């Protein structure tokens, strides 16, 4: 199977600390890299993770709080310094273009690549990106400003050809894609060979959901049902429930409840408040509802 990985570049919250960087991730699917959020320090984390800048063509910004987008203008500038020519696509609230375009015009004069802004509506669940292998959907969040999460889903894959059967029936190369798609094979003598004798099941399609920053949104559970990996913010412990509610963030226990209701196969928590010296308290509380909860940390790679 091709790689499907989530690289954690930053999993802290608004206040900078020496323990965590501001929010940013890179999702690798095959040879394609997609960035989610771009807080300060993202470029250094890309270097530390040996992630090739030039392979990032699509950046998804969940919302316009600084810890999720202050690193963007620096990254755009660096792309220009590296001689980038490929277009860069940014998916975000329409206000980001209003804020960022003047900075691009001022700091990035003579840049040799175009930046395209794709406006997203954080109140709607919809497909905002699609190619021949994946879709990216928005997940409306409940935060103090318009905010959405993102769901990355592989499209259904083709069935696998059984090599011995292909050789035995001498199936021409030009027919093999159709057989992968489910077609039967008719021999030159007119015999129909059913697809089940020529192929075996395709690899299962995989999925990843990113939910930050938000109060718990049970309504999204139908969209992320049975997701392979859910990254959900867990800014606070239960003892800070009132603070979580007033700032429109989730506790670790609430993140675990969403994962459980959605039937997620794995849960990773992040976006930790700067008040916690480590994430053990948050992990313990989430584990009570969702055993096996994993704590994100800079440099971690989650393989799906």
Describe the SSE topology.
Elements: E1 4-10, E2 24-29, E3 32-38, H1 42-48, E4 56-60, H2 72-81, E5 88-92, H3 94-107, E6 115-119, E7 127-130, E8 134-140, E9 148-154, E10 160-161, H4 163-168, H5 173-180, E11 185-186, E12 192-193, E13 199-200, E14 207-211, E15 229-233, H6 241-247, H7 252-262, E16 267-270, H8 280-289, E17 294-295, E18 301-303
Parallel strand pairs: 3-4, 4-5, 5-6, 14-15, 15-16, 16-17
Antiparallel strand pairs: 1-2, 1-18, 2-3, 7-8, 8-9, 9-14, 10-13, 11-12
Helix pairs in contact: 7-8
Give the helices and strands as they follow along the chain.
EEEHEHEHEEEEEHHEEEEEHHEHEE
The radius of gyration is 22 Å
Structural class: alpha/beta
Q: Give the number of DSSP strands.
A: 18
Strand content: 25-35%
Mean of the pLDDT scores? 95
- Low-confidence runs of at least 5 consecutive residues: none
Number of helices: 8
Tertiary shape: globular
Rounded to the nearest angstrom, the distance between the terminal CA atoms is: 10 Å
Largest sheet, spatial ordering of strands = 6-5-4-3-2-1-18
Biggest sheet descriptor: 7 strands, mixed
Question: What percentage of residues falls in helices of 4 or more residues?
Answer: 10-25%
Oligomer: single chain
């Amino acid at each position: 199977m091709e790689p499907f990985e989530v690289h954690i570049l930053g999993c802290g919250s608004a206040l900078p600390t020496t323990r965590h960087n501001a929010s940013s991730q890179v999702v690798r699917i095959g040879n394609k890299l997609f960035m989610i959020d771009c807080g300060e320090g993202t470029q250094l984390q890309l270097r530390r993770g040996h992630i090739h800048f030039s392979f990032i063509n699509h950046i998804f910004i969940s919302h316009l709080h600084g810890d999720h987008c202050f690193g963007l203008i620096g990254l755009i500038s660096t792309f220009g310094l590296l001689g980038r020519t490929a277009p860069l696509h940014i998916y975000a609230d329409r206000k980001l273009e209003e804020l960022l375009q003047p900075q691009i015009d001022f700091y990035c004069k003579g840049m040799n690549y175009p930046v395209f802004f794709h406006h997203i509506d954080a109140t709607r669940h919809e497909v905002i990106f699609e190619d021949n292998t994946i879709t990216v959907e928005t997940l409306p969040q409940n935060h103090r400003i318009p905010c959405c999460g993102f769901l990355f889903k592989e499209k259904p894959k083709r069935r696998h050809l059984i090599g011995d059967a292909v050789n035995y029936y001498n199936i021409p190369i030009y027919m093999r894609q159709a057989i992968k798609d489910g077609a039967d094979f008719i021999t030159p003598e007119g015999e129909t060979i059913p697809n089940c004798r020529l192929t075996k099941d395709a690899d299962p399609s995989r999925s990843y959901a990113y939910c930050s920053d938000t109060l718990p949104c049970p309504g999204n559970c139908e969209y992320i049902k049975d997701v392979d990996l859910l990254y959900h913010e867990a800014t606070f412990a239960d003892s800070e429930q009132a603070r979580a509610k007033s700032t429109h963030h989730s506790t670790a226990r609430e993140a675990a409840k969403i994962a459980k209701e959605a039937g997620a196969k794995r849960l990773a928590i992040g976006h930790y408040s700067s008040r916690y010296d480590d994430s053990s308290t948050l992990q313990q509380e989430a584990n009570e509802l969702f055993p096996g909860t994993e704590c994100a940390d800079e440099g971690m790679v989650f393989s799906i």
